[in-house]
């Protein structure tokens, strides 16, 4: 076999396609905000290891304005939606954004915080496992500054110093914007937007409508290498979008398009049989005779129950 032929053969093998390494670092589309308070990004900074030195506060709600990089941080004791809601209320005293980006964890989507957001703004999450990028970067910065504070004081108390740490951040020139976050306003936001969003060249995706693909699983950073890395379910490319980088939309075997778009690196092309031949079964739900022939209602391995289907019992192998 040539290398190309071997690759095509491997695309048919579950043992290969389910465990193929997933590429984590690649270029992503920019998260664009057109003006101050157009888009906030939010996340929780885990500070549980220092809670006994900081009045029982376990987390810090981190909220950052995407354009100006202006930062808000509010310590909270738990990540229950009620406590997270109170922290957001403190942030929103300074102004309410038009949009809010978080991940899909329950502290941001559980009731009552979901209802609270619905009354104020457009709250959404990405389908990717990646966190809000600006939040992730600023949390690394703040962790470093808190660590320096620990070293300089010889103590693990950060609560009293946090307001000054945040104020100093907002009063420092940001490496990306070239501006101090506190100085970005309606008078200079257009110029800043134009500087940050220079024209790029969109390109077509390598995927085509009808291609069969698996989706990368959102796994923790400590997941073992032999764990399954891709969905057992095989999807079909429904459409693509010419952007920089391009994105792909997929649908399941029922024809339902999956919410959100995917980068090419989050997809793996496969050559999957269109029938159920050689597909793994996770459970036999029921049995009945159809036209005198025994059939099983089976649940396919890695597929949701709406994909359950009747197959002849003679086709099922142990």
Topology of this structure?
Layout: H1 3-10, H2 14-17, E1 39-46, E2 59-65, E3 71-76, H3 81-92, E4 99-102, H4 106-109, H5 113-118, E5 122-125, H6 133-153, H7 162-170, H8 189-196, E6 212-215, E7 235-241, E8 247-251, E9 262-263, E10 267-269, E11 281-290, E12 293-300, E13 309-312
Parallel strand pairs: 1-4, 4-5
Antiparallel strand pairs: 1-2, 2-3, 6-7, 6-10, 7-8, 8-9, 11-12, 12-13
Protein name: Integrase catalytic domain-containing protein
Keywords: Nucleus
Domain Chromo: 279-318
Radius of gyration: 25 Å
Give the count of structural domains: 3
Indicate the mean pLDDT: 85
CATH homologous superfamily assignment of the largest domain: Ribonuclease H-like superfamily/Ribonuclease H
CATH topology of the largest domain: Nucleotidyltransferase, domain 5
Please report which band the strand proportion falls in: under 5%, 5-15%, 15-25%, 25-35%, 35-45% or over 45%.
Answer: 15-25%
Number of DSSP helical runs: 8
Helix content: 10-25%
The outline comes out as elongated
Uncertain segments are 219-225
CATH 2nd-level architecture of the largest domain: 2-Layer Sandwich
Query: Would you count the extended β strands for me?
Result: 13
Strand order of the largest sheet: 3-2-1-4-5
How far from one another are the termini? 32 Å
Structural class: alpha+beta
Domain Chromo: 279-318
InterPro entries: Chromo-like_dom_sf (IPR016197), Chromo/chromo_shadow_dom (IPR000953), Chromo_domain (IPR023780), Chromodomain_CS (IPR023779), Integrase_cat-core (IPR001584), RNaseH-like_sf (IPR012337), RNaseH_sf (IPR036397)
Main location: nucleus
Organism: Ornithodoros turicata
């Amino acid at each position: 076999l040539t290398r190309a032929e071997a690759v095509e053969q491997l695309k048919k093998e579950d043992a290969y396609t389910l465990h193929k390494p997933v590429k984590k670092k690649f270029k992503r589309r920019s998260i664009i905000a057109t003006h101050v308070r157009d888009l906030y990004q939010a996340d929780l900074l885990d500070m549980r290891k220092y809670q006994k030195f900081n009045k029982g506060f376990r987390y810090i709600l981190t909220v950052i304005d995407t354009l100006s990089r202006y930062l808000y941080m509010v310590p909270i004791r738990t990540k229950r939606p009620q406590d997270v809601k109170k922290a957001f209320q403190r942030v929103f005293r300074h102004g309410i954004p038009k949009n809010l980006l978080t991940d899909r964890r329950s502290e941001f989507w559980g009731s009552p915080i979901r209802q609270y957001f619905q009354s104020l703004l457009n709250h959404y999450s990405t389908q990717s496992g990646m966190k809000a990028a600006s939040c992730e970067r600023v949390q690394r910065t703040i962790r470093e500054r808190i660590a320096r504070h620990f070293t300089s004081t010889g103590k693990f108390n950060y609560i009293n110093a946090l307001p000054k740490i945040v104020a100093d951040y907002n009063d420092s020139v940001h490496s990306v914007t070239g501006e101090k976050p506190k100085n970005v306003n309606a008078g200079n936001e257009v110029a800043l937007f134009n500087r940050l969003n220079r024209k790029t060249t969109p390109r077509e995706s390598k995927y085509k409508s009808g291609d069969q693909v698996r989706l990368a699983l959102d796994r923790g950073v400590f997941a073992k290498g032999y764990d399954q890395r891709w969905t057992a379910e095989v999807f079909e490319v429904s459409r693509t979008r010419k952007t920089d980088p391009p994105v792909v939309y997929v649908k399941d075997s029922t024809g339902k398009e999956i919410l959100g778009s995917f980068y090419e690196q989050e997809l793996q092309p496969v050559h999957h049989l269109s029938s159920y031949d050689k597909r793994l079964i996770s459970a036999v739900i029921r049995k009945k005779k159809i036209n005198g022939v025994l059939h099983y209602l089976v649940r396919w391995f890695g597929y949701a129950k709406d994909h359950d289907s009747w197959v002849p019992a003679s086709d099922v192998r142990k």
